[in-house]
Amino acid sequence: MRIVLVGPPGAGKGTQAQFIAGHLSVPKISTGDIFRANVSEGTDLGRRAKEYMDRGDLVPDEVTIAMVRDRLGEPDARNGFLLDGFPRNVPQAETLKKMLAEWDVRLDVVLELVVDEDEVVRRLSGRRTCVSCQKIWHVDFDDKRDDVCDDCGGHLFQREDDKEEVVRHRLEVYQRETAPLVQFYGGEGILVRIEATGTVEEVTRRALTALESPA
Ligand code: AP5
Ligand code: ZN
Asked: What is the pLDDT of residues 160-198, one digit of tens each?
């Protein structure tokens, strides 16, 4: 299956992507994760991306698209994938469509996670990420009293772009650049919306049910 996850910052895309991709046995491809890995490794790509990410702006399309093209060309993505964080604007969506057409395939479903702005701010302000295994935690909802990953013992860190003023800017960028994708994919007839409130498990169940019978 070829799936795109869309939704505002903090909607739970990364959280759900790890479960959904595992359940469907497809690779989870997160552009945010790939950028962050490049930043921490100090690559050229990371250096170019960092200034945009720290401000909460989108990394330029030519950089992002080249990176996604490389990743989707890898053998593990040939029979399916779950994209988290890409496409992020209509030009990226149009490019993805052409790219997949070159390979004679197409997207099956675009899953939109719907959640209101207050909840998003609450989720992002308490988010912690494991430096070793990338698992996403929340200080309140997961009752994290220390900065240690329960899965692997790695150190948990807070993302630079989760500061309040950057979060607010990311939400504006989402409304301006990314929200129009809902109409774009609605027009293609492959958009499925689910409520992303409730527990992580409830949202995963809703997502899997929606993916099993998308029509
Ligand atoms: P990216 O990493 O994609 O960030 P984002 O879209 O802003 O999304 P987030 O990762 O902040 O949120 P999420 O929806 O994954 O939520 P999460 O699961 O963590 O992008 C970062 C930057 O990279 C961009 O700003 C841009 O600069 C650049 N970039 C990336 N892709 C790009 C592209 N295509 N083009 C250009 N630039 C690009 O959940 C949040 C918190 O809530 C966690 O703590 C979690 O534990 C908690 N939580 C989740 N679900 C629940 C629940 N049901 N109940 C309670 N808590 C929950
Ligand atoms: Zn970990």
From this structure: 899 888 999 999 999 999 999 999 999 999 999 999 999
Task: Domains for the chain: give ranges and CATH numbers.
Answer: 2-113+167-212 (3.40.50.300)
* Beta-strand pair 81-84/2-6: parallel
pLDDT at 23 over 80: yes
Closest atom, ligand 1, to C-alpha of 15: 18
Ligand 1 — pocket residues by CB below 6 A?
A: 7, 9-15, 31-32, 35, 52-53, 56-59, 64, 85-86, 88, 92, 123-124, 126-127, 136-138, 141, 161, 170, 198-200, 203
**What ipTM goes with this model?**
0.95
| pTM score | 0.93
170 is catalytic: yes
